[in-house]
Design a protein that fits this description.
Layout: E1 12-17, E2 23-29, E3 34-38, H1 49-55, E4 60-64, H2 81-95, E5 100-105, H3 107-118, E6 123-129, H4 137-151, H5 158-166, H6 172-175, H7 178-193, H8 197-209, H9 213-216, E7 223-228, H10 236-245, E8 249-254, H11 267-283
Parallel strand pairs: 3-4, 3-5, 5-6, 6-7, 7-8
Antiparallel strand pairs: 1-2, 2-4
Length: 285
């Protein structure tokens, strides 16, 4: 089984090298308004393959491997969220004629916000999912613990990878579906077995260092923030802070979904929400 569901044979694979010396693997599928999908922490472009399958009939879907994941290479860390935003802006310039809708989950949600703040002229609409304006409380303690664990050289055994990480990604009902759990167990074991601990440290530290609470207050880009009711990593209350701070912010909460339910669990539900937001927002733009 693949770590992530695969792209269709209609997907195009490109390579982009930026002025900052980042060489990114980029995937494009579909025609229509440009929508850039920014992967979450430890994820690659393929995490959005099921979203592409549902949305590329009406939208030109674009994603890429971010710094610290997949086939993308970048200058030595530390990296900041501003670095990630410049990478996203470079993708928009290279493949979207300088303007696009930007959406992303988790780390990708933070990148979505940073890109809208730093490059508002390039972002037609921002749709961060499972996100935060500043990471605090339980989520901060958990992420810092994961970073510190790796800094101490502790390696989780294969048999513990899926039970550990899946609990933060999917709701209880999903984990207790035997067929779905078999898929998650295999893919999560393979995914995190191959993960470079330093890449996780560098990506997650950029998330913990990010605080856009003040900058959001003056960001002119329209925001549609998507939360998932069963999200352990970024609870709906964290997401709502983002929509409340943005001058033109709208909050959406999808019931019954967890942080990564857009992969394998309920991709069609997330895609339906994205489609509704995109059609409505772009028709009135």
């Amino acid at each position: 089984m693949a770590i992530f569901p695969g792209f269709s044979d209609k997907a195009e694979f490109r390579t982009l090298t930026t002025a900052d010396g980042v060489t990114m693997r980029v995937v494009i599928e579909g025609t229509g308004p440009n929508v850039v999908f920014v992967p979450g922490g430890d994820q690659v472009a393929d995490a959005y393959s099921q979203q592409f399958a549902h949305l590329s009939d009406r939208f030109r879907c674009i994603s890429y491997d971010p710094r610290g994941a997949g086939a993308t290479t970048a200058p030595s860390p530390p990296w900041s969220m501003e670095d990630y935003a410049r990478d996203c802006a470079a993708v928009i310039d290279a493949f979207c004629e300088g303007r696009a809708v930007v959406t992303g989950l988790s780390l990708g949600g933070l990148v979505t916000q940073a890109t809208a703040i730093d490059f508002p002229e390039k972002v037609q609409l921002a749709i961060p999912m499972g996100t935060a304006a500043y990471i605090d409380g339980f989520t901060r303690d958990w992420m810092q613990a994961e970073i510190d664990l790796r800094k101490q050289g502790i390696v989780l055994p294969d048999y513990f990878l899926a039970p550990h990480y899946a609990a933060y990604a999917f709701p209880g009902k999903a984990l207790h579906d035997p067929e779905l759990w078999a898929q998650i167990k295999e893919s999560y074991t393979e995914r995190f077995r191959e993960r470079d601990p330093q890449d996780t440290i560098d990506q997650w530290q950029a998330c913990l260092d990010f605080d856009c609470r003040d900058a959001l207050k003056t960001c002119p880009v329209p925001f549609h923030v998507i939360a998932f009711s069963e999200d352990v990593q970024t609870a709906p209350s964290m997401c709502k802070v983002v929509s409340d701070l943005a001058p033109n912010g709208t909050f959406h909460e999808i019931p019954g979904l967890g942080h990564v339910s857009l992969v394998r669990h309920k991709p069609a539900v997330v895609a339906s929400k994205l489609r509704d937001i995109l059609i409505q927002a772009l028709s009135t733009a």
